[in-house]
Design brief:
The complex is a heterodimer of chains A (386) and B (288). Chain A contains 13 helices and 18 strands. Chain A is of the alpha+beta class and 386 residues long. The radius of gyration of chain A is 25 Å and the shape is elongated. Chain B has helices at 19-31, 57-64, 78-88, 102-112, 156-167, 188-197, 214-225, 259-268, 280-287; strands at residues 10-14, 34-39, 47-48, 51-54, 68-71, 92-95, 118-120, 126-129, 133-136, 145-152, 172-177, 203-209, 230-235, 272-273. Classes of the chains: A alpha+beta (386), B alpha/beta (288).
Chain lengths: 386, 288
Amino acid sequence: MKIHEYQAKQLFKAYNVPVPDGNVAFSVDEAKKTAADLGGFPVVVKAQIHAGGRGKGGGVKLAASMEEVETHAREILGMTLFTHQTGPEGRLVKKLLVEAGQKIKKELYLSLLVDRATASIVIMISQDGGMDIEEVAAKTPERIIKIHVDPLMGIQGYQLRQAGFALELPSAAMKLFSGLLLNLYKFFIANDCSMVEINPLILTSDDKVLALDAKVDFDSNALYRHRELMDLRDLDEENPLEVEASKYNLNYINLDGNVGNIVNGAGLAMATMDIIKNAGATPANFMDVGGGATSEQVENAFRIILADDKVKAILINIFGGILRCDNFAQGVVDAAKKTGINIPVVVRMEGTNVEKGKKILSDAKLNLTTAVDLFDAAQKIAAAVN
Amino acid sequence: MSIFINKDTKVLVQGITGNEGSFHTRGCLEYGTNIVAGVTPGKGGQKMDDVSVFNTVQKAVEETGATASLIFVPPPFGADAIMEAADSGVDLIVAITEGIPILDMVKVKHFLATKNCRLIGPNCPGIITPDECKIGIMPGKIHKRGNIGVVSRSGTLTYEVVDQLTKLGMGQSTCIGIGGDPVNGTNFIDVLDAFQKDDETHGIVMVGEIGGSAEEEAACFIKEKLTKPVVGFIAGLTAPPGRRMGHAGAIISGSSGTGTAKIAAFKENGIFVCENLGQIGQVCKDIF
C-alpha cells in the first residue's frame, strides 16, 4: 500500500527522521496559511499524488513570496499531472505539501527494501541523488552501494558508518546521518514496509541531513497488524473499479484493452492475458477470482468487468482445482440473470466437476460460446472483438 | 524414483481442523497420502475423521514419526507454524498459506538456515508424486505417473500445464509449486538440481512469471549443470509495471523482473521457450 509524501514525512517525524518543516494543504487558502506559519521564504509547493516524476510534470514549484504561493497553489491544485508513472490518463491533484525551502549543498540517495534473492533488508545509497535511480543503476552501477542487513541481527553500527563514509559526508553530518539511517531502519521494520525511498536526501549548507522527499510502500499482507496505517489509504489514488473489487477480495487490475477476462489463480490469469494478446486482441483487465471463489464472488467479478465501458467481450478461463466448475457456473448464471450480459462471452472450463458446470451453463440457455481448450478460447475471443 | 516425497512419506497437517485444512486433508487421504497426524493447538486428543490431532508438532512427530508437515494455518500464524515444524525435526515442510508478511518470511528463511529441513512455499499448491503421494491442494486426478518433472511459481497455471501433458500421454515424475511469494523456501535451482539427479525424470517443464530474478538465475544454472531438456514458460508478458499481479512476488519493479528479460535469459541458456500456454503440451511432446 502506497501513501503520500506528506503522510510519509509525518511518520518519519515520529521516528526522528529529519524532514523540512511543512504541512498538507487541501485548498489555496490552506496553502497560504501554511506558508505564513513557516515564517519565511522560499517555500516549496508540491503536488501530492502516488506517482514519481512530479517535478518534471510541473507539480513542484518554488515560491519566493506569498503571491507566488497563491499562484502556484492555484495552478497545481486541480491540475491533471502527467508523469512517467501516472500513465496516459494522468492524475488529478487534490492536495499539496507546502514546506520550507532548503539550502542544498549536496543531493544524495537512500532507500531500504527487502531483497528477494538474499531474504534480507538491503540499504541502497548513492551520491547521485535527485536523479532517476534506475538510470544511475543502468549507466553507472558502481555509483550505487548496497549494504545487506541480517534481519535477525538488525542494522549494526559499522553498517551505519559504511553508509556514511560511502556518501563522503563531512564529519559534522556523519552523526546526524547515522541517527537518520538507524531511525529509518527502525521505522521500516516496525511498520512492515516493503520499500522506503528518500530521493533526494539532502546535505544542507549548514551540514544537516534531511529527507527532502519520501516514498513509502507497506507490505499489504502485514496491514492486519497495523490498523492505524490503513487510515492512510487514499481511495482517490486508486481506480474505482479496483476499489470495488477489493471489497470482495477479488484480485482485479484495470487495463486499457477491450477483452475482459475472469480467471482463477494469479499465474493462470496472467497467462490468459498473454494469450489474449497473442491471439491479436488486448486484455481489459487482470482478474483472479482466487482458488476458492464463491458464486457470489464470481457474480461480483462479472458485474465489475461489465461496468468497464471498454470491455467488448469476456473470456472466462477456469481450471477447477479447489474451485469447482459447477459453483463457478452457477455464479455466471446468477450474474447473467441479475445484470444481463449483452456482449459476447467465451467460456473455457476444465477440472473438478466440469461436466456439471457445463450442464448448468447449457441449461441456463445463456448466449455463451464454449471453447474446447485454451488455444480455441483465444481464437474465439479474438474473432469476437476484431 | 521421484524427488522429495514418495509413498513412504509420513505427513502431518498443521491446521487440520480448519475448513481448508480438513477439506484438503481428505483430498490427500483419498489420493493415498499417508497422513499420520494433525495439529491444532487446544484440540489435542480429538480426531479429524480417523486422523489423531495433537496440540504441538513436536508431540505429533514423537508419537507418529511424521517426516513431513503440510501447513494450512492463517497468514498471521504462518511463520510461527513453519518454525514450529522446522524445530520438530521433520524433513519437509509444505506451506500452502497465502499472505504471510514478507518480513516474517525473511526471518523464517534465516531461521531455516540453521535447521536441516526443506520448505516448499509458502503461497503454493504443494508437491505431488503421481500415484504415490500428494502433499498439497492440486487436483490429483489430472496427474499421471511418468518422466516429466514440473516446477512452477503458480497453482492453477501448473494444473493447466499438467493437464495438457497428461492428455498427450506424458506423465510426471514429480510436480512442485514453489509458490508466488517474493521470499520462499525451495527455489527453482533446488528443484532443477533434484530433477537432474533423479533417474525417473527425463525432461523438465519450468513455469515462471514476472517479478524478481529467480528465472534468470535458474536459466544460468540450467546451462551450467543440466543435461536434461527443459521447456520454459513465463506468465505476465502483458502485465503493467509497478502492479502486483495477484501473487505478492509477481511485480515488475522499475525495469527489473520483466517477462521479456526472463524469456531472453531462457533462450540464451538453451531452454526451449513456449510462448503460448495453449500449446505447451504440444511443445513438450515435440521436444521430450
